[in-house]
Amino acid sequence: MQYDKSEKTNVIDHREDEKNEMEANNMSDHILPSQTNTDTKHSDIDSSCRVYVITWNVGSRFPDNISLRNLLGLNTTDHQHMADIYAIGLQEVNVQPQQQVLGLFKEDPWTAKVKGALGDLGYVVFKTEQMQGLLLTMLIKRIHVHHLRNIEAEYTRTGFGGIWGNKGAVSIRFNLYGCDMTFVNAHLAAHDSHLEERIQDFKQIMDNHHYHVKRFRGIYDHDYVFWFGDLNFRLSGEDTSKEVEEAIICNSFDELITRDQLSYVREVTREAFHLLHERKPTFPPTFKFKEGTCEYDLKRRPAWTDRILYGIQPDNCKPNTHLHVNQFTYKSHPDYSISDHKPVTGEFSIKLFPSDKIPIIHFSDLYVWRIGEENTVEYTKPVTFKECEHDWIGVYQCEYTSLRDYVAYEYVCQAESPPPSPDLTTDPFFTHAPRRLSQRHRNPNYLRRQMRDNDEIVRLDFADDIELKSGEQYVLIYFQNSGLRGVTSVYGISNVFRAEMAGSSSLIPNVD
């Protein structure tokens, strides 16, 4: 399968970021379904989704005492037209032993910082993947969580011949509204003279980066690919660092970009990234700076090391439809100076094709959860919906900001009590060690099924020791877990319900 090589049909005029951003804000076909336990019929709807990509080599620094609002587009973007998806790729995240130990029990400081900035605006961290200093964090608007399918992370080491993860790639792939996409965050070999090593890193990632979702095993099998990171491509030629700096001061970007190694291997030799597109950078080279300043460190020649590329697989879409990408912005953020790199962002709009053919779990309305009592959760599933052994239902606070932030969960298919410790190979969010239905309080008939003509009603009892907070609001989320490398899908979200102490006299029939 080949990616679309025609720039004309898939990209727009790249000269005016401001004009393009205005056009993006005026688009009226955004996907904005409400979060309910029913699925809207979308079979004949073409919708767009806005994607915001960030790449930044943070040089082992922490996000203390800095604001990420400008980097996340929160200072300049109308909140009504904010991105549906954020993809945040960092390189050289601090990986000292104490940080790795802390990472087993709490979020990385960068992910926590981003979640703090975006959580109140309705975003959810739905997946992160880290390999040593490479960190990829994916967020999505909470109203879209119901439509996330086949979420999977992958990584490839390329450092020291593939045995060390200081270089390589991490990625997260998923399906949203009928389209499959993958986001790849890479850190390739450094130094001006190591062009061949960078090409080999790319090939090694392509050869070894494999997913476990049918039809989407490779990176280029996806409808949309976003590949970004510290790709480390430099400028060819023998000019000195000072001469390159003088050309930058004169805004001679067009002359410098003709000697850009990435453009050369992508467009001329076609040895790497040749099936992907990149908007021509119109910002100054993003490496190498003296930390804390906007002054180039001339120990290295300035270069555009930090890049964002994208691709489309036109053969994947259904008949009489076509995929499409518009890029509205591609810029650096020179005010961020904690490392020797400047962060780069790109904003895109992609076409999606919502479908009503995917079976959905429908939760029956639940108004009050009685703390200290057993509570029965009831849902209906189509007979065509195939449960997996490790499917589970999580209890979340109503305004959850991460799929890891469940309060409790229970498996729906296992006849016996799960082991005391989570199975690290199958539980996709095991690190928070949630409360299960305990052996001590288990009702032997906790799972009951009732078959009907075209569907099945399932009733699942949660134990009386689930620790919810009285007066707070929660939702239930049904996850399908295939058991293959944590491939996870969201198949149902309940209505909002309130937790109350057992014996409460409240007769409120619903929740605001």
From TrEMBL:
Biased composition annotated in UniProt, kind: Basic and acidic residues: 1-22
GO biological process: phosphatidylinositol dephosphorylation
GO cellular component, one term: ruffle
Pfam family, one: SKICH
Gene3D superfamilies, sorted: 2.60.40.2840, Endonuclease/exonuclease/phosphatase (3.60.10.10)
Positions of region (Disordered): 1-43
Ranges of compositional bias, category Polar residues: 23-38
Residue span, Inositol polyphosphate-related phosphatase domain: 47-356
Molecular function via GO: phosphatidylinositol-4,5-bisphosphate 5-phosphatase activity
Similarity remark: Belongs to the inositol 1,4,5-trisphosphate 5-phosphatase type II family.
Entry protein name: Inositol polyphosphate-related phosphatase domain-containing protein
Upper lineage: Eukaryota, Metazoa, Ecdysozoa, Arthropoda, Hexapoda
